[in-house]
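Quick illustration, no need to memorize.
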Amino acid sequence: SKDTASNAQIMFLALHASGLTLIPVSIIAARAAVRAENPTDIFIPCMIATFAATMAAMILVSLRQKINLLQPVILAWVGGLSAIIALLVVYLTSLSTDSVQSFSGLLSNGLILGIFVIIIAGALYKKIDVFDAFVSGAKGGFETAVRIIPYLVGMLVAISMLRTSGTFDVVINGFKAVFAALGTDTRFVDGIPTALIKPLSGSGARGMMIDTMKNYGPDSFAGRLACVLQGSSDTTFYVIAVYFGAVAVRNTRYAIGTMLLADLVGILTSIGICYLFFGNV
C-alpha cells in the first residue's frame, strides 16, 4: 500500500542515513572557528567512518531484501573502495603519531581540492551551469519544508525533553563508570553525546560537537572524536521524518532498525579510527 515503505525506499533511506560524506565542510568550518591547529585533520577519519556506515547499511538491507551482492560490478566497486581504505589504514598504522597527523592533513587537503576540481571539470565537460542546476534542484524545498513541519516539531520536542531532563548526563556517567570498571580508556565517552543526539537532530549534534570542542579543546581526543562522529552518519530520525513524511509513509517496516545498526557501525568505527589517528593526543 502507499503508506508502507517499499524495498527501494528503505534501501535509499538506509544509504542516505548512513551519510556518506565526501567533504565535511561544516565540521571543518566549526573546527576553524574554535581555532583548531589543523581543522582538516578529521577529514580522513570521517571518510573512513562514513564509508563503514554506508557499507553496513547496504549489506544489512541487502541481506534483508535478499539482494545478491556478489555481482561483478558491485564487487568491483565495493571491493576496490574497501581495498583502498584498508591499505590506507595499514599504511597509517606503520607511521608515528606525528607522521599520521602530517600525512592525514596533507591527504585531506589534497582530496578536498581534488573533489572541487572534479566537480567543476565535470560541469564544464557536460556544459552544465552549476548554479542553475543547484537552483532547479532547490525549487521544491519550501513546499517540502511546509509539509514536514508537524513531524519536525514532534521530533524537536522529544529532543528538548531528553536534553533538559538530564538523560544524556545519566547515560554518559553510566558509560564512564562501566568502562572505568573494566579498566579501559574512557576518553571516548566524552565525545559520545554527539553520537547519541545525531540520529535525532543534526543541529543538536552540531551543538554537542562544538560544546565538546570548547570544553575539552578542538585538538583534544574528545573534540576530534565528536567531529568524526558528527561526520560518520546522517540524522536517522530526521531523514525518516522528512522523506517518509513527505510521501505519507506510516509503516516504515524494518527501516529504522537497519538505519540505527548502520549508525552503530559508524560510531564504533569512528571510535576505533580516532584511537588510530589521535590516540596519543
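The radius of gyration is 20 Å.
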